[in-house]
Automatic annotation (TrEMBL):
Superkingdom: Bacteria
Record InterPro entries: Anthracycline_SecMetBiosynth (IPR052164), Glyoxalase_6 (IPR041581), VOC_core (IPR037523)
Domain VOC: start-end pairs: 6-119
CDD domains reported in the protein's UniProt record: VOC
Protein name: VOC family protein
Pfam family, one: Glyoxalase_6
Xref: PROSITE patterns: VOC
Length: 122
């Protein structure tokens, strides 16, 4: 059976696309969308990716109308959280799941939830 080999992109609506793209670049290090042959897309490091539909009535994402939540892997959650706090970004949730890893929740400027994940044993 032929199968997909990874996520090729993540596309979502935004009120201010340029400002939001700059926030992801400046806050989380995600390159802007390439606009020409000399621009490089963001290249993620190899590692686990969880693809998990959630129940339509989950409250895990936050707002009831929130249909998705980004989850980014990080190597050092403590260092990332220190960097985010230095930038006055609110960390709304921190937790650890035994055998899975540590998690923290932030939101982008448009209110989209972002989960940061330091996998166990990383």
């Amino acid at each position: 059976m032929e199968k997909v080999t990874g996520i090729g992109g993540f596309f979502f609506r935004a009120q201010d696309t340029k400002a939001l793209a700059a926030w992801y670049r400046d806050t989380l290090g995600v390159n802007l969308v390439p606009e020409g042959p000399d621009d490089a897309p963001w290249i993620q490091e190899a590692g686990p990716t969880v693809f998990a539909p959630f129940s339509a009535d989950t409250d895990y994402f936050g707002r009831d109308d929130q249909a998705f939540m980004l989850n980014f892997r990080v190597n050092d959650l403590d260092a990332m959280l220190a960097q985010l706090r230095e930038a006055d970004i609110d960390i709304s949730r921190e937790e650890e799941m035994e055998g899975v890893g540590r998690f923290a929740r932030i939101h982008d400027p448009e209110g989209n939830p972002i989960e940061l994940w330091e996998p166990a044993g990383g």
